[in-house]
Amino acid sequence: MSKSTRNTGKPWTSEDVKQLKELAKGNTPTRVIGIKLGRTEAAVYGKASSEGISLSPTNQSPYNRRK
């Protein structure tokens, strides 16, 4: 797995957090969010957790149930 390090070690800006919220709301996969923000997947998970942002897909039912 490749890791994006463009912004690794840099503090999160309010614009970064805003973009994270918008991408999470649009059900963007965490890996893609990391690439777009230049952060590792772990950094995205950590920041989302500290900000109370859910990265779970809201439009998919659990366990791939079909109706």
Describe the protein.
This protein is mainly α. It has one domain (1-54). It is built from 3 helices and no strands. Helix 2 (30-37) packs across helix 3 (41-51). It is globular. The model has no long low-confidence stretch (mean pLDDT 81).
Annotation field: number of helices: 3
**Strand-and-helix sequence, N→C?**
HHH
Radius of gyration: 13 Å
The percentage helix is 40-55%
- Structurally, the number of domains stands at 1
Give the biggest sheet.
none
Query: What average pLDDT do the residues reach?
Result: 81
Low-confidence stretches: none
Strand content: under 5%
Separation of the first and last Cα atoms: 35 Å
Give the helix/strand class.
Answer: mainly alpha
Judging from the principal axes of the Cα atoms, what is the shape? globular
Number of strands: 0
Question: Features of this protein?
Answer:
3 helices; mainly alpha; 67 residues; 46% helix; globular
Topology summary:
Layout (H helix, E strand, L loop, with lengths): L13 H12 L4 H8 L3 H11 L16
Helix pairs in contact: 2-3
Would you summarize the structure shown here?
With 67 residues, the protein is mainly α. It has three helices and no strands.
